Amino acid sequence: MNAVAAGSVGEALGAATDALAAAGVETPRLDAELLLAEAAGLERARLTADPSAGVDAAAAREFGVMVRRRVRREPVAYILGRKGFRQLELAVDPRVLIPRPETELLVEVALDLRPRRVLDVGTGSGAIALAVADELAAAEVVATDTSLDALAVAQANRARLGLESRVRLAHGTVPADERFDLVLANLPYVSEAELAALEPEITRHEPYAALSSGPTGLEAIEQLLGELAVAGALPGAIALEVGEGQAATVGELVRRAGFERVETRRDLAAIERVVIGRL
Ligand SMILES: C[S@@+](CC[C@H](N)C(=O)[O-])C[C@H]1O[C@@H](n2cnc3c(N)ncnc32)[C@H](O)[C@@H]1O
User: Fold this and answer.
1) Residue range 37-59: average pLDDT?
2) What CATH fold (topology level) applies to the domain 83-278?
3) Per-residue pLDDT for 180 more than 90?
């Protein structure tokens, strides 16, 4: 990699993998490779193809800092400052939840229903709203969040992706006096009891307000359905991401809110992950 070498790629990866494994990291080798590739400014495949190559001093120093952060169980996405979602690369930091692969299902619902006006409630990094705008050229998208910190991250992502004219950001839950064809929401749904059992990557580093909204975990979803019903502004359809085992309860809440046709979609792990209601 460079003339001023501070050990080889193989040595650096071996030491980091041992440290990460000792700290309880689930995928120590993969994470070590991702971090060293970032520190060295190389593709991961190029890095691992030549374990005897030298690591230069600057890259070794940066790698050391990254590995220490990962040992404290900070998620790789926060250390790298980015996460892929659908076809986009989003900037992420501890102000927002790291977008999860299963949330891409909500974007697929939008692609199936092809709505004109879409509301993404609890937008976080902007993942759902920006992906819908990116993939549905005719959609007009509004995205809300009760966290001003999250809205700042979504705004920066929107600007970097050149989607300012397609996605409007607003503080709160449901914007007053507006109608939508489809409401999408990945709101916090972890109950307080379940929260304690999650990995330190989540409980120590992701924002509490993005994970749980109260004892049952369904408080934010109930608030959203309540706001839509009170405003007399039920959208043509709603799609809500839910936790494992919550689909039946949330399906009932959706039905009671006034949506007549209710169905669920499963994620790749066969968990009922999205509840869809239609008028
Ligand atoms: C689970 S995160 C989802 C972020 C993003 N949509 C994603 O899927 O990656 C939930 C987000 O909802 C926001 N939030 C929590 N309660 C809310 C509410 N009642 N109304 C609007 N946003 C809320 C949180 O601040 C957080 O950014």
Assistant:
1) 94
2) Rossmann fold (3.40.50)
3) yes
Across the range 223-227, mean pLDDT stands at 96
| Contact indicator for 92, 82 with CB cutoff of 8 Å | yes
Ramachandran area for residue 244 (φ above 0: left; ψ -120 to 50: alpha; else beta): beta
In the chain, domain spans: 5-72, 83-278
CA dist 20 and 107 (Å) reads 34
CATH 1.10.8 fits 5-72, yes or no: yes
Closest Cα to atom 14, ligand 1: which residue? 122
Helices then strands, each counted (H, E), the chain? 13, 11
Please name the residue whose Cα sits nearest to atom 26 of ligand 1. Answer: 210
Question: Does residue 152's CB lie within 6 angstroms of at least one atom of ligand 1?
Answer: no
Q: From the alpha carbon of 85, which atom of ligand 1 is closest?
A: 9
- Per residue in 99-124, pLDDT (tens digit) is 999 999 999 999 999 999 999 999 99
pTM above 0.90, yes or no: yes
Tokens at 253, concatenated? 């809440």
